[in-house]
From TrEMBL:
Domain R3H residues, every copy: 98-163
SMART domains found in the cross-reference section: R3H (SM00393)
Gene3D superfamilies referenced in this protein's UniProt entry, alphabetically: 3.30.300.20, R3H-like domain (3.30.1370.50)
Protein name: R3H domain-containing protein
GO molecular function: RNA binding
Domain of life assignment: Bacteria
Organism: Candidatus Woesebacteria bacterium RIFCSPHIGHO2_01_FULL_38_9
Length: 163
């Protein structure tokens, strides 16, 4: 048993080292001076990357977090290519994800309140799957409201309605 645990730890360390190396290369190729701090997320069985970007934070985040998401996707694909396995990677900078989650929670509550006040369904467009998921989770606690994703692909949207 002790051997397996040691081996697992070495594999975890090597994945963290690989992600550190790949994220550093990617940030350099993007022409930024940003630095990546990589840690293991044991709770969610993945890797957390916190990009310290200083004045380039807006560039790293991009419009509605699209650059941050693209960096995350690219790093995931690069790690998959190197290891042969999918590793859950979450990229963040300047607590952007936490602030975005708070914004989405407020948006969800406002839309639910409008649905209750008007009796009409509320529609939320242009949301990434992870953003829709946050809203679904927030409103799942409201016994008067139901949520449903509709549409296909990039035209998918969220409907918030009374039960």
């Amino acid at each position: 048993m002790g051997t397996k645990k040691t081996k697992k730890t070495k594999e975890e360390v090597s994945v963290v080292n690989l992600v550190e190396e790949l994220s550093g290369k990617l940030l350099t190729l993007l022409g930024t001076k940003a630095k990546a701090k990589v840690t293991e997320d044991k709770e969610n069985k993945g890797i957390l990357i916190d990009i310290e970007a200083g004045e380039e934070t807006g560039l790293i985040i991009g419009n509605r977090g699209k650059n941050l998401q693209a960096i995350q996707t690219l790093l995931g694909m690069m790690v998959r290519r190197e290891t042969g396995e999918w590793v859950r990677i979450l990229v963040n900078t300047s607590d952007w994800r936490e602030k975005e989650e708070d914004r989405l929670k407020k948006l969800a509550i406002q839309a639910a309140e409008r649905a209750k006040a008007t009796g009409e369904p509320q529609y939320l467009y242009n949301l990434a799957p992870s953003q829709r998921r946050i809203i679904h989770l927030v409103l799942s606690e409201d016994s008067e409201i139901q949520t449903e994703s509709q549409g296909e692909g990039s035209d998918r949207y969220l409907v918030i309605n009374l039960k």
